[in-house]
Design goal:
By secondary structure, this protein is α/β, with parallel strands linked by helices. It is built from 14 helices and 13 strands.
């Protein structure tokens, strides 16, 4: 399906064309037509397949073509994280650029006053995280009685983070006759119950559920736990990349690893929940702009971030579940571009590897880098690129995945 064939308002068609969109992705092709008809919808698809545009376009079309109350919030999008809220907000700005519709974000970690003004002055679209929105509702700053379209984005992540009770409280403050769109990358039983409770005869759309995107190549790199950092630095030196997203299991490890990477001559930033909102935004903006080669993050970055030229995701620590793996590596191979997922695995990760291979339906290729072995004693990582010369290793790995010195480029933000 081509976007030009959709019966969208001319202003939206202009924005779609300006954004360079021509052919709809499978989730967009399946979800946009019923969304335009006003149907409630449950959309499930692999991460990185264009869910954001799949709900933003029907929402904007409704607001443009349906008379509504003035000076009230007419559409509400609930997201689990600040970063995702900002990304959805950016997509609305991109696709609504030729309209007069206004949107604002509402989340914690920043001041109340600008959000209070947006809520009280009736901004058309609010993109909010549950906790801060409930704070505003408790203070009397927000009135959701005029909401005509409600979107729950990354609903499975909100379930994982314990937000479902908050979501139910927020939904209870909106009109019953609203249109509700629920999007998720995976679908747990608890979400089925939520869908039954808050949606009316929803159309279900499932595209490639519970599998990573087909555009991502997967590789396992066995290593002793004590040698992970040394192997990571070796891979970075010998892998041709654009931008690299590295995942760790803990915030402390993310901080420590980012410092080790920077001492080795790379430009790196760190992202986790202990960072202030300003620090988190600076890290993301710098990564998008190419100021940083690498972003070291916890699973806070595993959902929703859409940075098109992340060529490699490296799991420094094996994720806890298959779903977590799917979301992490979904940060690469987006918008049908090729991506690579490298996972450092230890002897303790074998059961998770079996689960991953079951989800993929095939064995994951293993890359054994010479000079690294489960049984080798630990060695401290080098402190600079100059200290890591080819004579430090017995041989360089062969193959196209490790065929060149890293190349770096800026990154672009996409709404798809």
């Amino acid at each position: 399906m081509q976007f030009s064939n959709l019966k969208l308002d001319d202003r939206l068609q202009r924005a779609v064309k300006a954004a360079g969109y021509t052919d709809a992705t499978p989730i967009q092709e399946a979800a946009i037509p019923p969304g335009l008809q006003g149907r409630d919808l449950v959309g499930t698809a692999q991460t990185g397949t264009g869910k954001t545009a799949a709900f933003v376009l029907p929402m904007l079309q409704h607001l443009l073509t349906t008379p509504g109350q003035r000076r009230c919030t007419r559409a509400l999008i609930i997201t689990p994280t600040r970063e995702l809220a900002e990304q959805v907000h950016a997509a609305i700005a991109q696709l609504g650029r030729f309209t007069k519709l206004r949107s604002a974000t509402v989340y914690g970690g920043v001041g109340f006053e600008p959000q209070t003004r947006a809520l009280r002055h009736g901004t058309d679209i609010i993109v909010a995280c549950p906790g801060r929105l409930l704070d505003h509702l408790g203070r009397g700053n927000a009135d959701l009685r005029g909401v005509e379209v409600l979107v729950l984005d990354e609903a499975d992540r909100m379930l994982d983070m314990g937000f479902l009770p908050d979501v139910r409280r927020i939904v209870g403050r909106t009109p019953r006759d609203r249109q509700t769109l629920l999007f998720s990358a995976t679908f747990a039983p608890e979400l089925n119950q939520l869908a039954r409770d808050i949606l009316r005869d929803p159309q279900r759309v499932e595209i490639g559920v519970a599998r990573p995107a087909d555009t991502v190549a997967h590789t396992l790199c066995p290593v002793d736990q004590r040698e992970k950092t040394s192997l990571l630095l070796r891979l970075l030196d010998e892998t041709e990349t654009d931008s690299v997203l590295v995942f760790t299991r803990t915030k402390h490890r993310a901080d420590r690893l980012a410092e080790q990477i920077k001492r080795s001559g790379y430009r790196a930033a760190v992202l986790h929940s202990n960072r202030t909102q300003s620090q988190r935004q600076q890290a993301l903006d710098g990564f998008r702009a190419g100021k940083y080669d690498l972003l070291v993050a916890t699973d806070i970055a595993a959902r929703g971030l859409d940075i098109r030229t992340v060529s490699h995701v490296i799991n420094y620590d094996m994720p806890s579940t298959v779903d977590d793996y799917i979301h992490r590596i979904g940060r690469t191979g987006r918008a049908e571009q090729a991506g690579h997922a490298l996972t450092l695995v230890t002897a303790d990760d074998h059961s998770t590897v079996r689960d991953l291979e079951g989800a993929l339906g095939e064995p994951i290729p293993v890359r054994r880098v010479e000079g690294f072995d489960y049984g080798m004693p630990s060695a401290p990582p080098p402190t600079s690129r100059a200290a890591r010369t080819p004579t430090s290793y017995r041989s360089r790995p062969k193959g196209p995945s490790y065929g060149g010195r890293g190349r770096r480029s800026g990154v672009a933000l996409t709404a798809r």
